[in-house]
Every structure is written in structure tokens, then in C-alpha cells.
Design a protein that fits this description.
By secondary structure, this protein is α/β, with parallel strands linked by helices. It folds into 2 domains: about 220 residues, Aspartate Aminotransferase, domain 2 (3-Layer(aba) Sandwich); about 190 residues, Aspartate Aminotransferase, domain 1 (Alpha-Beta Complex), CATH 3.90.1150.10. The protein is built from 17 helices and 12 strands. Strands 1-7-6-5-4-2-3 form a 7-stranded mixed beta sheet, with helices on both faces. Strand 2, helix 4 and strand 3 form a beta-alpha-beta unit. The chain is globular and about 75 Å long. The structure holds pyridoxal-5'-phosphate. The site of pyridoxal-5'-phosphate has 15 residues, from helix 3 and helix 4.
């Protein structure tokens, strides 16, 4: 029933002249011919075929991480001197890859835009633009990309022989959205997140046409083949066994995220969740989603300052046992992080402001464990403790002068950590309550 794990990294042939035929591209995995673990592996290919079916693309291939998938996809599309138009609201690692790494090491330059502003996207396109890059739901701000409109924009500006490809990172919304059905040319994922669901393995995938995937894996020129971020077959086998219940998990993550968002809204929190009817992009998202999977398992709350964000998260973790302060997402328990001081810390203060990532923004990847009513009660209790009658906006003055520039961020984390380690548990609570102005 379950596919067996092929754990060999090298494969034998029956006739000596088969090897040159494989190297010449005449024989490959479609004819049952495997060569070496960094090239195609039967087990990794099996997972890739499952993900391709899920993402409605002709083909896919898996690799060691989401970042490996993103960098390989972009290097397959761009050469030195080429240009990318990217959403200013993307995962911090992707932002750093686009802004610094690709530009400095490869001469591939990126213009960042508000991806929801069609005019800004069109205005940023140059004759050397080869890629429009976006996340379907952005990390952490949950901006919804209008994939059909971006597809039209890419097509309108493509000229003969110089296609602009729309690349969509669908890490935040597997099952919820199928970007290829909405027009995306290439879809990437960090499989480390919802696909894994257990924060125990890393992986990535690039989904696209068979020709694109063949290009990624070309023995002589392919970025996945030559840069070498191969997925271990055992990891591929593990992930394959989790795919059948991905849909059930996503539907439950979404159901709970919506319930949390409603409760936080009722408490007067500045909650952002595109599944809420009042969210400015709710109607757009409704047009893009696949029915039955909700609107995704992530939400954000802006509590006005990093100090209040930290107090709320610590209370939720250490007192309420509601979830964990940790980066990443898609885990079975709730994970919380203040994005500006963690997963988006690669961005400067100006870039954070442009992307709408405030110092007090808490990203929550909503988990599946515990009774929903119990979790809602824990969330409400911690909220009342940390925020009390004060609205998040009223907490804002505490953030004055508390820029989250890199140096300040490092200082505040270090000083908070040392303050905390010196305090008794009761002392810690008093310290935190002082920071939020409660005592
Ligand atoms: N894409 C998004 C939206 C992410 O949030 C992340 C990581 O947090 C990545 C890609 C990178 O994935 P990985 O950590 O598997 O390299």
C-alpha cells in the first residue's frame, strides 16, 4: 500500500551503454532509469508526483527546503542582468535572497512593490523583467495576491521570446488555494510547514510544467542538480504518508483560526485574518479559494509594541499553556512570534513599515490540539491580562522610540532575556506587567 523507500544514492544499469544515454538525456526516470541521488530518486519523485497532482501542475520536484525551491526556481528563470518584480511583503529569508544575495552574487535585481497595487506592479516591469514573485498569502501580513490579475499583467508585458513568469509561494495556503489553476506558471512551497505538520522535517517543492522541472534537474545546467539541495528519500517517504490528511488538517487549522479571529475581534483586538468578512481583501480571497478548506491557519494581532507582544506571548505560553513562542508554522500546536523581531528581521525599519509589519505584530499559526473552547478561553484570559481594557492602539504610545532596527532589536531581546533569567517566576510576571503598564 505504501510505496517502499528507495534509499540508494546510486543506481546500476543492465547494459554499459545505458549510462551515456542517461547523461545524454535520452533516458530518464520516466523510462525507469535512475542515476544518482542528487538527480532523480524514485521516492522523492513519488512525493513530487503527489504534490504536482495536489497543485494541478504537470510536474514537480522536491528539494531540501523551501529556500532551496525558491532559489532554484528563480535561477532557472533568470540570468545575470535580469530583473524580478516582487511583493514587498514576503518571508524575510526570501526578501534577503532577492534584495542582497541574487543581486550581489548573480546580478539579478529586484524591485519590491505593493503586490495588491496593479499599477505599481505594471510600473515596475522593465524589458529585463523575467519574474513576478509573490506569496499567495503573505508572511506575515496575509496580503492576498490577486493571482489571476498578476497572470494577466505578466502576459500583457511578455514579449515574443521574453516571457514574464508568475512565481507563487503557496506555503501559507496549501489546499486553500491552487495558484496554477489561477494562472501561476511556477508554484513553490516550504514543505517544512503545513505539509509536514509536525515541525520535524525540512523540505521544499517546485511545481510547474514538465519542461520547467526537466530544466531544474538537467544534469549539466539544472540549478537543483548543480547546487545540490537534494531531499533525503526517507524524508520524502515521511511526507508522502502525511499528504492524505493534509486537507483535513488545513480545514481544521482554518476553522480554528476563524474562531480565534472572531473572538479577538470581539475583544477589540487589531486582528487581521482574511477570512473575516470585514477584511478588505475578504471578497477577493473568497473568489480564489477552493471550497471546503477555509481561509488558512494564520492570523496576526497588532498589540502596539514589542513589549506588549512579548508579554502576551509569554503569558499564552508559560501561564495558559496555549501554544509556543517559536518561528515556523503549520505545526499541530499554535506557534507565535513577533515577526519584526524574528522572521522578518532581515528587513530595515523602512522596509518593515512599507510591508506593514509593526513592532507589536504577533503572527499566530493556529494549531489543532486541545478543545477549541478551551483554547478560546486561554486566548481571552491572556489577552485580558496583557491588554486589559486598553485597546491595542492605546498601547501604541509605549512603543514610542522603540524602533525595531536591527541593533535595537538585538539589544531588546538580549536585555529582556537576561532580565527574565534573573527574576523569579513571580518577579517575571511583575516585570512583564510593569512593561505593559498594569502595575
Ligand atoms: N516561504 C515562506 C512563506 C516561509 O514562511 C518560509 C519559511 O518560513 C520559507 C518559504 C522557507 O522555507 P524553509 O524554511 O523550508 O526553507
Amino acid at each position: 500500500m505504501n510505496a517502499s523507500v528507495e534509499n540508494s544514492v546510486t543506481y546500476t544499469v543492465l547494459a554499459a551503454d545505458t549510462l551515456p544515454q542517461i547523461f545524454g538525456g535520452e533516458l530518464g526516470p520516466d523510462k525507469g532509469c535512475f542515476l544518482y541521488g542528487r538527480s532523480f530518486s524514485p521516492t522523492v519523485r513519488n512525493l513530487a508526483r503527489q504534490v504536482a497532482a495536489l497543485e494541478a501542475t504537470e510536474a514537480a520536484y522536491c528539494c531540501a527546503s523551501g529556500m532551496a525551491a525558491i532559489s532554484a526556481a528563480l535561477l532557472n528563470l533568470c540570468n545575470t542582468g535580469d530583473h524580478i518584480v516582487a511583493s514587498q511583503a514576503v518571508y524575510g529569508g526570501t526578501h534577503a535572497l532577492l534584495k542582497q544575495f541574487l543581486s550581489q552574487k548573480c546580478g539579478i535585481h529586484t524591485t519590491f512593490v505593493d503586490i495588491a497595487d496593479a499599477d505599481a506592479v505594471a510600473a515596475a516591469i522593465t524589458p529585463r523583467t523575467r519574474v513576478i514573485y509573490t506569496e499567495s498569502l503573505s508572511n506575515p501580513t496575509l496580503v492576498v495576491a490577486d493571482i489571476p490579475a498578476l497572470t494577466r499583467s505578466a502576459a500583457a508585458h511578455s514579449v515574443l521570446g521574453q516571457k514574464i513568469s508568475l512565481v507563487v509561494d503557496n506555503t501559507f495556503s496549501p489546499m486553500v488555494m491552487t495558484p496554477a489553476l489561477l494562472g501561476a506558471d511556477v508554484v513553490v512551497h516550504s514543505l517544512t510547514k503545513f505539509f509536514s505538520g509536525a515541525s520535524d522535517v525540512m523540505g521544499g517543492v517546485v511545481c510547474s510544467s514538465a519542461a520547467f522541472v526537466a530544466g531544474l534537474m538537467d544534469l549539466h545546467t539544472g540549478p537543483l542538480m548543480l547546487l545540490g539541495p537534494a531531499m533525503d528519500p526517507r524524508v520524502a517517504s515521511d511526507l508522502s504518508l502525511r499528504l492524505p490528511h493534509l486537507g483535513l488538517r488545513i480545514a481544521e487549522h482554518s476553522r480554528r483560526a476563524l474562531a480565534f479571529a472572531h473572538r479577538l475581534q470581539a475583544l477589540g483586538a487589531q486582528v487581521s485574518y482574511p477570512g473575516l468578512p470585514g477584511h478588505p481583501q475578504h471578497e477577493l480571497l473568497k473568489r480564489l479559494v477552493n471550497p471546503g478548506y477555509g481561509f488558512g491557519g494564520l492570523l496576526t494581532i497588532n498589540v502596539g509594541s514589542l513589549a506588549v507582544a512579548n508579554a502576551l506571548m509569554e503569558r499564552l505560553q508559560n501561564h495558559e499553556k496555549f501554544g509556543f513562542m517559536a518561528v515556523s508554522l503549520g505545526y499541530h500546536d499554535t506557534l507565535m512570534s513577533a515577526s519584526a523581531a524574528s522572521t522578518s528581521s532581515e528587513l530595515s525599519d523602512t522596509e518593515l513599515a512599507g510591508a506593514g509589519i509593526q513592532a507589536g505584530l504577533v503572527r499566530m499559526s493556529v494549531g489543532l490540539t486541545g478543545a477549541l473552547e478551551q483554547r478560546l478561553a486561554q486566548l481571552e484570559a491572556a489577552w485580558r491580562w496583557a491588554i486589559g481594557g486598553r485597546s491595542a492602539a492605546a498601547a501604541e504610545p509605549m512603543a514610542r522610540g522603540e524602533g525595531v532596527g536591527k541593533a535595537k532589536r538585538a539589544r531588546s531581546w538580549q536585555s529582556m532575556a537576561s532580565e527574565m533569567s534573573e527574576e523569579t517566576e513571580g518577579g517575571q510576571e511583575a516585570g512583564v506587567r510593569q512593561q505593559v503598564g498594569e502595575v
